[in-house]
Amino acid sequence: xxxxxxxxxxxxxxxxxxxxxxxxxxxxxxxxxxxxxxxxxxxxxxxxxxxxxxxxxxxxxxxxxxxxxxxxxxxxxxxxxxxxxxxxxxxxxxxxxxxxxxxxxxxxxxxxxxxxxxxxxx
Length: 122
Hints:
Blueprint: E1 4-7, E2 10-13, E3 18-24, E4 32-39, E5 46-51, E6 58-60, E7 68-73, E8 78-83, E9 92-100, E10 111-112, E11 116-121
Parallel strand pairs: 2-11
Antiparallel strand pairs: 1-3, 3-8, 4-5, 4-9, 5-6, 7-8, 9-10, 9-11
């Protein structure tokens, strides 16, 4: 069973940084591809980043490439999203998600956290 809980959200000024964390209280974290998604008010959910179960492969949405970095620590059952050079348009609820199988796809995620709010002020 995968149970995900995000942390690290908050209010930051334009150009600032935040690091989100997502911990899994289950026992199978290391076998899952992990992803981050976000949803802004009135907008569809957007893929942000994904990382393979080994951490050797990553994938990013076009809007965050070069600014966000996804990483994972399987020993701690935690995935991270380091965000730098934040912009007001990054304001959203950020969700982590898990899916079985390999690769770093943008779809097919079966387990979701409750989300953490990130607000970037201008």
